[in-house]
Specification:
The chain has about 160 residues and is mainly alpha-helical. It contains 6 helices and no strands.
């Protein structure tokens, strides 16, 4: 809110250069907020993909969490009015990789009832495969639910079928 008052002041004072600089800063702050939101949802998505791969099983709850996280990421990633995305495909792949350690730490607490530490759990999984599955879910947004809201086979990664 403070930034909007400052922007108004710059415009009313005819200080357009400063107004444009402030607009750039505000745009960057908004993008950072979107990225933080996306990374949070990515951690949830990756957490459940890690558990699926480590335990070689899935549950309805995990499938729904994967679907919901994918949906939330897509909502945050897309630019509504301007069209396009806040992150390029490459930036999204980087965000997936950056969110992976957080997800792995959380998965160590949940997978197998928390019986394994991070190092033990990481030896049971293929991170590249999990990150690839996350990218596939995001870049092929048709995965998820039928119109009636029921789970479909696309909720289950190909390597678990």
């Amino acid at each position: 809110m403070e930034e909007l008052m400052e922007l108004r002041y710059f415009i009313e004072s005819g200080r357009m250069s400063e107004a444009m600089t402030l607009l750039d800063e505000m745009d960057e702050m908004a993008k950072d907020d979107k990225i933080n939101k996306i990374e949070s949802f990515l951690a949830v998505l990756l957490l459940h993909l890690i558990k699926q791969q480590a335990e070689q099983r899935t549950t309805r709850s995990w499938n729904i969490s994967i679907r919901n996280a994918t949906h939330d990421i897509m909502r945050s990633w897309k630019r509504r009015k301007v069209k396009g995305y806040y992150l390029t495909d490459e930036e999204m792949r980087e965000a997936i990789a950056e969110a992976f350690p957080t997800a792995l730490n959380k998965a160590a607490l949940e997978a197998f009832g928390g019986a394994y530490g991070v190092k033990q759990l990481s030896s049971m999984i293929a991170p590249d495969r999990i990150c690839g599955e996350a990218a596939r879910l995001l870049f092929n947004t048709e995965a998820g639910a039928d119109d009636d809201g029921e789970d479909t086979d696309t909720d289950i990664p190909q390597w678990l079928k």
